[in-house]
Amino acid sequence: MKEIKSILKLYNALKHSDEKCAIAQVVRVEESSYRREGARMLVFESGVFEGGISGGCLEGDALQRSQIAILKQEPSIVTYDTSKEKEIGVGLGCNGIIDVLISPISDSSPLMAMLEKCTLEREEHLIVTVTALKGSLDSVALGKSFYFDAKTGGLQGCPSGDFQDFVLERIAEVRSRKKSGTYTYEKGEVTARVFVELIPPPYHLAIYGDNYDVYPMLELAHIMDWEVSLTGNIQKLKKEKLATVANLYPKEGEARPGIDHRTAAILMAHDYKTDLSNLKELIKSPAPYIGSLGPRKRFEKMLRDLKTEGVEFSREEMARIYAPCGLEIGANTPEEIATSIFSEILSAFCGKPGGMLRDKSGPIHERD
Length: 368
What we know:
alpha/beta, 6-stranded parallel β-sheet, 5-stranded antiparallel β-sheet, 16 strands, single chain
């Protein structure tokens, strides 16, 4: 989501100028690639750009091809095979095949409005893009995008019929798998390939604490573009440090952060009773990650005290609690501890063990 916001920021800053622009987007990857499907870069005809489609090896060529697409006002697909010796990117270790769709953006293009919608509404978004087309299909063209409205179940701008039915079935599959995918539609003399992109809401970090060790947590969350809610004694904290916090909740107030399946909650009040009380409430929420600072003995005491109150956590509830929280990386300072916790949160949300990549057998990214 951070890349989308950066692209929109540049687009909105320059859209009233005379410059034309295009979007280059990774729509298919085979084998290894630094960036995965969905990565984008916005290119203006002057060469100004934002975003990226690789680790730097493809951007220069994609920029030039985007300028050509802007001049012709025609979308195109570019395939990069970085496993070939003379291909762009040789020596960078990509060793994959990458399809990049380059689409000129005009005033009538709905794509930028779709991306804007993704940043404004905290929900799951799906955008379907035609990445290849052979034959004629009513109101469907290479590079055209359609937005899926989850509330109505409709595919905005897409003609009704077999093609729409096919795409809606693929959308249901993507929503079930929670993973974007590329699919091929075939009927008669028509063949169309579509990229169904799932854009989830940003992660939400709910911090329950008001000591100086929350500052590196806020800074990292800002870098990662995570939405942040903070509950605590707000008066104790420096106002300038809270500028990036979306939601502030006084410790003594009744209002509390909204918790969803993309929320990680961190108990770091350093006050036993406060953390215990917050834990009792958070376990009732859908938060898949509830982290608690402090030694294991502290958490074990929490469990004993809760048991005396008649509260015992189920196996499923215990699996959502990370106490002590963080990966074991030798962290000591608040900044190092924050890094440890963020790493564990990503590991938990992605279902990864959090070990060293050099010890991993097989590719870094999952492949279909």
